[in-house]
Amino acid sequence: MEIDSFTELVPLLSNFWRTIPAAQQLKLESSLTLLKQDHQLSQLHFLGRLEAHSVAYLLAFGTPGLDVFRERKFYYSRNAVDWILLLEPTDWTEEWSRLWGEFTGNASFAFKMRSLAAGSAGVVVREQDRLWYVIHAILREAAGVPRGALRMSTERDVVLNPFFQGLTRAEMVQLANYQHFRRPERPAEENLRGRKECDLSFDVFDRLEVDVLPEGKSFTMRLDDSGRVVVWSSLHWLGLEFFHKADSNVYGFFYQGDGRKNWDLPFMVEV
């Protein structure tokens, strides 16, 4: 949730049984506005809350330029006031998603993980580095946006589309109309294939329905009572929800979970 729209978006969290206490909401809005100014960020998003053993980590990310992903910075806070910049680990790998121990709340705590390479010594991962990885993985694998919300500029920058007016009620219930919140990783031809109408500036992004295994079954959808707000939930990163209000540019995503990936998903759905 972009901090400039924070007050407008928070009430929508009730559609997936989430809330932010009023006192904490005021702290977040104030501290994140200051963080955005102090770090000279063009946009800053509140991602959500990661539940650890002794404390909850509040998570945020932002970028200094118009490009949504270039030089992206991750932050965490324990008290909704003081924010700490997370530096990208120099030796991280996707194997870190196999870490299953509970987050402790101590950023210097060290997790031990066996290496998959034969003869290699075990890997030690600090909680602070693992926190960076979890934010990275959630944004890459689970966060989504409506089709048209992101646009590829002629300079190959990924920017928020200022002309996005939202999906219709009929469009918003189709998984094909949602894309990953990331730079395209699949060939443009693959992302454009099968569309009756397409726009090269915003249809080059990876679609949710064909990207995450098992295909088409990694997200669930529900509508609110009015039928105007749709909520998609990730089944890989439980606690990640993204939402969109029909015929408007109101959309966002929010995470509240324990930072552990659901590796049992293939055994929970019919493939």
UniProtKB/TrEMBL annotation:
Location (main, coarse): other
Subcellular location: Cell projection, Kinocilium; Cytoplasm, Cytoskeleton, Flagellum axoneme
InterPro entries, alphabetized: RSP9 (IPR055316)
Source organism superkingdom: Eukaryota
Coiled-coil spans in chain: none
Family: Belongs to the flagellar radial spoke RSP9 family.
Protein name in UniProt: Radial spoke head protein 9 homolog
Naturally occurring in which organism (per UniProt): Anopheles coluzzii
